[in-house]
Amino acid sequence: MKQDKKIIPIFFAIDDAYTPFLAVALQSLLDNASSEYQYLIKILHTNVQEEHQNQIKKYERENVNIEFVDLSYYIEKVQDKLYTRDYYTNTTYFRLFLPELYPQYDKVLYLDSDIIVLGDIATLYNTDMGTNLVAAAPDDIIQYHKVFQDYAELVVGVATYKHYFNAGVLLMNLDELRKFKFQEKFLYLLGKVKFSVAQDQDYLNRLCKGRVTLISHDWDVMPYVNSETKPEDIQLIHYNFAYKPWHFEDVTYHEYFWEYAKKTEFYEEILKVREEYTEEQKFQDKEAEKGLVALAIKENSCVGDDRKYGRL
């Protein structure tokens, strides 16, 4: 008797405007995914119109199931506590509620929608986490910027900035997160501390510190810096921060994005987005980057470096 295929649950979180970029991410993910698995893809949202949902559902196939999950009812419970800035929306917090929302799963993948997957996503899912809470790659923006290194250690409280991870490509051990009472601790911390630089990512790093499996940089390559990763080793590109190939023409690794964008029915729409992105909007993106650095400096100045005296 033929055994059922192993299930890989994958979560995304978007608002309606991000549907075209989700389509590109899915195109790349499924083009490079092993046919030996069953992929359950859940799109968390609060406002994706039915037409867009139907367009994304076209990616379903024999071993791929896609479901849109409206979390409006759930997010309303903590709406007034969630802090966002710049281009962020409340969808960025959805991943933090997965352990309680999906008790039927012991392990899931959470992926941002501004990605291109070049490797077999099953390889990432099959990472051995042991009893760690999450598996993720070190965040490039932190690793190459002294201000953010200090922020990670002084404000967020990780032991070393080298262990501060990016939460846009996240393997989550839901079983251990439930045992840890992660959501209860997150909601408590949310009421006591406001992390304003990386928001939900800061909370994840603070709560999960010491129980993180660091994965290869190859699975979260960012255009923020000149990556040392060889092109043939890249497994996943993450166009995080303001480095979007649909806004700027000179973004590193842009050619991978457009390769898969051309395969989607959103290609012309995405081209239009780039063409209509104004110089004023580009300027505001650069100002937002400067503002983030200034915010981190301000946060850093509010805490003392107690490490040299020994922590209590």
Topology:
Layout: E1 6-13, H1 19-31, E2 37-45, H2 50-57, E3 64-70, H3 72-75, H4 98-101, E4 107-111, E5 115-117, H5 121-125, E6 134-136, H6 140-143, H7 146-156, E7 169-173, H8 174-179, H9 182-192, H10 200-208, E8 212-214, E9 236-238, H11 254-261, H12 267-276, H13 279-301
Parallel strand pairs: 1-2, 1-4, 2-3, 6-8
Antiparallel strand pairs: 4-7, 5-9, 6-7
What report would you give on this structure?
The protein contains 13 helices and 9 strands. It has 312 residues and is of the alpha/beta class. It has one domain: Spore Coat Polysaccharide Biosynthesis Protein SpsA, Chain A, CATH 3.90.550. The strands form 2 sheets. A 7-stranded mixed beta sheet has the order 3-2-1-4-7-6-8. A two-stranded antiparallel ribbon has the order 5-9. Strand 2 (37-45), helix 2 (50-57) and strand 3 (64-70) form a beta-alpha-beta unit. The radius of gyration is 19 Å and the shape is globular. Residues 84-88 and 307-312 have low confidence and may be disordered.
Shape by Cα distribution: globular
| Gross CATH architecture | Alpha-Beta Complex
Average pLDDT for all residues = 89
Order of helices and strands: EHEHEHHEEHEHHEHHHEEHHH
Determine the CATH superfamily. Answer: Spore Coat Polysaccharide Biosynthesis Protein SpsA, Chain A
How far apart the termini lie comes to: 60 Å
Order of strands in the sheet with most strands? 3-2-1-4-7-6-8
Please tag this protein with its features.
37% helix, disordered C terminus, Spore Coat Polysaccharide Biosynthesis Protein SpsA, Chain A, seven-stranded mixed β-sheet, two-stranded antiparallel sheet, alpha/beta, 312 residues
